[in-house]
Write a structure and sequence with these properties.
8 helices, globular, binds D-xylitol-5-phosphate, alpha/beta, binds zinc ion, 219 residues, 8-stranded parallel beta sheet
């Protein structure tokens, strides 16, 4: 059984010291660096774009997991891959051509995936499952770190796991993860946990990453 992967979100890091945050994540034994790109249109917040991905790329060899919360991601996915993204995910309702966008990401050389908000049923993912490397479920409505996990997402994780069959995509859960609820989220079906405020806000981030990683999968 593979280990649970931990993807701390630099949304909760010090924006004036992103290089140091990326390096710290290696020391804390994180697996992926989760990068939340927000455009102020798809979500009511604005963070950063390609230049930040390039800067992070120069400072870490960890997997850069780029979560696009932007309208018409097809306009930018190739440039995010060129900037150093290893994984690019987006919200299908934001795109005019989700399948084409997934193919563009793959052709550019990165892994691809879609993201479903808490109120979007797992069945919406079905048309994309054969091409996705990652399917991410939001545990909160996107836009801000530090929100409370929406528990009604738990059965959706199990549903997605059942839908997977022998396909190889990983199931990622983003938003509201804490040391207290991580075991339940992993038990429901998550393979990868995004964790922003609970890692960067911890007194001992390294111990927090280790605690999250110690969650045991259901199967
Ligand atoms: C929400 C972002 C999440 C967020 C997670 O819009 O997509 O990645 O930063 O932060 P926490 O772990 O604090 O909920
Ligand atoms: Zn995210």
């Amino acid at each position: 059984m593979a280990d649970i992967l931990i993807a701390p979100s630099v949304l909760s890091a010090d924006f004036a010291a992103m290089g140091a945050a990326a390096k710290a994540l290696e020391d804390w034994r994180a697996d992926w660096v989760h990068c939340d790109v927000m455009d102020g249109e798809f979500v009511p917040n604005i963070t950063f774009g390609m230049p930040m991905i390039e800067a992070l790329r120069r400072n870490t060899s960890l997997t850069l997991d780029v979560h696009l919360m932007i309208v018409k991601p097809e306009r930018y996915v190739e440039r995010f891959v060129k900037s150093g993204a290893d994984i690019v995910t987006f919200h299908p309702e934001a795109s005019d051509d989700p399948i084409g966008t997934l193919k563009t990401i793959k052709k550019a050389g990165a892994k691809c995936g879609i993201v479903l908000n808490p109120d979007i049923p797992a069945s919406v993912a079905e048309p994309y499952l054969d091409i996705c490397d990652v399917v991410m479920l939001m545990g909160v409505f996107p836009g801000f770190g530090g929100q409370k996990f929406i528990r009604s997402v738990l059965p959706k994780l199990s549903e997605l796991r059942a839908m997977r069959g022998d396909r190889s995509f990983v199931i990622e859960l983003d938003g509201g993860v804490t040391v207290d609820n991580a075991a339940e989220i992993v038990g429901a079906g998550a393979d990868v946990l995004v964790a922003g405020s609970c890692v960067f806000g911890a007194a001992d981030p390294k111990a927090t990453v280790a605690a999250l990683k110690s969650c045991i999968r259901a199967d």
